[in-house]
Each structure stands twice: as structure tokens, then as C-alpha cells.
Amino acid sequence: MAGLKPAPRGASPTWRQFLTSQASGILSCDFLHAGTVFLKRLHVFFVMEIETRRFDRHFHDFDEFWFVAAGTGQITLGGDIHQVQGGDIIYTPAGVDHDIVAVTSAEDLEVFWLSWSLPPGASGQHLHRTPDDATKHLVPSQKAA
């Protein structure tokens, strides 16, 4: 059909603006697998609420690794505060409290948690020493400022 032009587009939001406006109803999910140095395959299902930026101080009855894919932030591990950035791998031993306390970059802090087969009797859940630890706190972010 020669001579026809596309229909005019009204002012529409960018993809980032649209996702931000819909964040309260969006979950980011990913399923992946990774090989270990012990030739085992780990299966990981990762879910994060986009809008809330909330986290809780907790520990596990199993060991866990964190892979920081992007961004920078501060975490607590045991009683110490650590700066983390994209590319870091953090080992959280069973029984050690840990928490994300701040996102220090303008981009999101993207973290993947990896664990493997649970030891006998392990719950596989976030465990809390006090009721206050179980309350999810807002993680300060450069984006939110």
C-alpha cells in the first residue's frame, strides 16, 4: 500500500518508566544451573520483589554462596560490614547472620544466592534469632534518594 504512513504514536513511556510504574506487581524470576568445582550441578530458582527493596537479618542451617552480578552495596556477615560489588562471591557459613544493609550505586544490587543439597535435618529457610530480625527492613538505595 504505497503512500500509507505508520499511525502516529502518542507520548508513551519508555520501557524503564513502564516497568517502574508497574513495579509493585512485578516479580523478577530466574531459573538457572551452575556447575561446581566438585562436578555437581546446582539448580537455583531466584525470585525478587522489584519494588520493595526489603531484606531481613537471618542465618541458615546450611552453607550458602552469594554471587554479586551488578551494582555495589554493603552487607553484614557475622558482626562485620563488607563492601560488595559486581563480580564478588561471598561465602555465608551455616549459622552466621547476614543481611543487605545498603545499595551504594545508582544501579540495582543484583545478587544470586547459591546453595546445594541440604544437610540432613536442615530446614532450607531463613532463620531468625529474634522477632525483630524477622522484620524485613527497607534497604537504603541511591536510586530511592
Strand fraction equals 35-45%
CATH superfamily of the domain at 52-116 and 126-145: Jelly Rolls
The helix count comes to: 2
State the shape: extended
Structural class: mainly beta
Q: Taking Cα atoms only, what radius of gyration do you get, to the nearest Å?
A: 20 Å
DSSP strand count = 10
Question: Can you describe this structure?
Answer:
The protein is extended. The mean pLDDT is 78. It starts with 14 loop residues before the first helix and ends in a 7-residue tail after the last strand. The protein has a three-stranded antiparallel beta sheet with strand order 7-4-9, with no helix packed on it. A three-stranded antiparallel beta sheet has the order 6-5-8, with no helix packed on it. It is built from two helices and ten strands; from the N terminus they run H-E-E-E-E-E-E-E-E-E-H-E. It has a domain at 52-116 and 126-145: Sandwich (Jelly Rolls). With 145 residues, it is mostly beta strands.
Question: What is the fold's blueprint, element by element?
Answer:
Elements: H1 15-21, E1 27-35, E2 41-49, E3 54-55, E4 64-70, E5 72-77, E6 80-85, E7 89-92, E8 98-103, E9 110-114, H2 131-134, E10 137-138
Antiparallel strand pairs: 1-2, 3-10, 4-7, 4-9, 5-6, 5-8
Task: List key phrases describing it.
single chain; 145 residues; mainly beta; Jelly Rolls; three-stranded antiparallel beta sheet; 10 strands
Give a summary of the structure in a few sentences.
By secondary structure, the chain is mainly β.
